[in-house]
Amino acid sequence: MLNANAYVTAQKGIGGSIRNQYEDFYVEEIPEIVPDGEGPNVYVWIEKLGRTTLDVVLDIARDLHISRKRMGFAGMKDKKAITRQWICIANMDSEEQFQQVENLDIYKTDFLKVVRGRKKLRMGQLKGNKFKILVKDLDDIEKSVDIANEVLKELQSTGVPNYFGWQRFGKPRTITHLVGEALVENNLEKAVGVYIGNPQGDESDENRLARQAYDDGNYEESLNLMGKGMRYEKMMLKELVRESKRGELTDKSYMNALHALPKPLQRMFVHAYQSYLFNEAVSKRVEMGINKYVEGDIVIDTEDHIVRDKTSEEFQELIDNFKASPTCPLYGTKVPFADGDVGEMEKDILKNYNITKEDFEVSKMPRLGSHGLRRSMRFQVWDASAIPTDEGVLCEFSIDKGSYATAVLREIMKKDVI
To answer: Are the beta carbons of 138 and 4 closer than 8 angstroms?
Structure first.
């Protein structure tokens, strides 16, 4: 996991591989809101295979001829997986509109339920996610099951380091946090260039040629070379081609290119850079004890409220019972630092990257800036078990929303997990 360096369990790890095929990785949303069958909005319980949530949402909006702003979902689910989640389409009052939704045929996406709901669905409105993940390519399946269950038992007691997974940064093209870094530096031209240009060796020849053409300043050629998989690059580049015909590109040109992207994607850039720095902070804080209160810690409860005015012993009791956890900063303009040694560690990370909290204002595009917040440095895993199969070890567990299953698998496998 990018910029994640510490483990909390001591077992050697079972190795192996995941996602040999998408069907080996199953995710099911644990919803906070379940539609009751009445209301002006249409909810769809989807099962998708090998597609991002945003791609499916854009396809639905396109086929219904509506704005993507009317589409809602609680969380982004893995692309390289079978996933189930609710999608909400706002303001579909008539029976004809309901039938239009039922009749949709979306690529690699099944509509398992279509029902009406009273409230719109917002990002973050879920309790967590259930996973069933098959680990393959193991030397000794029975021994691996024993190790996996040992690790899972320990993690259910201590919690799991709350690292952000590769999905946050992109894989194989890991550039989302680099775009965010450029935005924090207030370099819009660099931000756009990192996203559209910047060819990498693990891409197709077609994509590399398109990106190189952009880097060479041949924008129309770049656009013509772009394949089907470069949907978002095309959105940005079409805007730049229009702007270039009016004269020299300016910060406003690059701003307009970024605004051409869906808003959830725009917001992900700075969030990804925050996540990159957060992973480093978690690595250093885990070394102090994942389930230990350290003097100076900022502690939050399960509702993300800061817990104050407790003794060290009281903080520790809350942590032991998963009623609260120590935090690390998602750096931003207003995020508070911890005190003591923990706070010094947090400040040193910013110094090492030659940035300050104020830089997260992103003054040229303040809507993409962030005040920051304190985020739990661990998460809870429950209903966890591992069983043998003919092909490997099937790991089943549930985790808190906003946390990554690969952080659990990383402890079991003791290797980089994508």
So the answer is: no
Q: How far apart are alpha carbons 79 and 132 in whole angstroms?
A: 15
pTM value?
Answer: 0.86
Residues 58/64, Cβ–Cβ less than 8 Å: no
At 327, list the tokens. Answer: 């935090």
Instruction: State the catalytic residues.
Output: 78
pLDDT of res. 416: 86
Q: Which two tokens mark 287?
A: 């070394």
Average pLDDT over residues 50-79: 95
